[in-house]
Amino acid sequence: MTGYRELAAELRDAIERGQYPPGDTLPKQTELAASHGVHLNTVRKAVGVLEAEGLVTAVRRKGTVVRPRPRLKRLGIDRYAKSKWKFGLVAFAADREASGQAWKREDQTNTVRRIEANNEIATALRVEVGSAVYERARLVKQDNTPTHTLVSYYRPEHVEDTPIVDPQPGTATPGGGFAVLTLQGLEPDHMTETIHSRMPTPQEADELQLPAGEPVMVLHRTTYTANDTPVEFARGVHRASRFSWTYEFKLPD
After folding, report:
1. H or E segment and range at residue 75
2. What is the distance between the alpha carbons of residues 147 and 206, in angstroms, rounded to a whole number?
3. CA atoms within a 13 Å half-sphere pointing along the CA-CB vector of 251
4. Distances in Å between the alpha carbon of 97 and those of 76, 80, 100, 106, 246?
């Protein structure tokens, strides 16, 4: 007897084998019910499982479409190499080039404002809660489709009157914010990153144009100078289906 989980497994396998390639449409639900000898409600629940896994999405007047999954390589520590941003290659562009995909500075929009630091920001930047900090929010797109957001926070004394607080579209400079900080005598030296996954908030789903069921990968990053001064706290929200996360490193002794 076929239940919805078994039917979902069969359809999932067919998608992974390429029977239904990206952009293709699954058979109508009535056809699936007839061909598998199950109730229509069983098909609906099976398709719901695949939607929650991010494999398919319902498209009005078309049906259940297999999602295209062009994954970007999101490089690990190598995306922050000084040899990249000191010569005009910001982190998201390094990911694109590693993936063999095009990019331009205008793929990133900016919104800059001065806000009061909450507990999370204050702890990361080592300032008092309620202190003024600069918030620089970016939305990054590829072919007009959002891939991720990144919001950075800075101490005003570090970035006042620099390109980091300029709201014009594009990276702060060809080398991005790290290049600006270096010119301020605050060259990034080391950082910590924490990554976790969760379902998006309604605002995130709208901003990233997420189909139903797609989770996000959330990045928290704090960047320090060689003398351990925090110069940036950043929070990124990434479409899970658009990235594979790659890290290469030497094993510690």
Report:
1. strand 72-75
2. 12
3. 1
4. 14, 14, 5, 16, 14
Structure confidence by residue, pLDDT tens digits, 120-129: 999 999 999 9
Residues in the chain: 253
Give the pairing of strands 145-154 and 230-239: antiparallel
Structure token digits, residue 90: 């910001």
Question: Among residues of the chain, what percentage have pLDDT more than 70?
Answer: 98
- C-beta separation of 73 from 99 below 8 A: yes
**Does the pLDDT of residue 138 top 90, yes or no?**
yes
Q: Please state at what angle helix 40-52 crosses helix 4-16, rounded to 10 degrees.
A: 50
User: Contact 34/27 with Cβ under 8 angstroms?
Assistant: no
Residue found under tokens 């959002």: 146
Q: CA-CA distance, 124 to 235, in Å (whole number)?
A: 11
Q: Closest Cα partner for 64 from 23, 101, 105?
A: 23
SS3 assignment for 140-170: EEECCEEEEEEEEEECHHHHCCCHHHCCCCC
Helices (H), ranges, 4-155:
4-16, 29-36, 40-52, 82-85, 91-98, 119-125
Kindly report, residue by residue over 148-171, the tens digit of the pLDDT: 999 999 999 999 999 999 988 888
Give Cα separations from 204 to 25, 117, 210, 245 (angstroms). 27, 21, 8, 20
For residue 69, report the phi and psi dihedrals to the nearest 5 degrees.
-130, 65
Residue 41 pLDDT grade (very low, low, confident, very high; cuts 50, 70, 90): very high
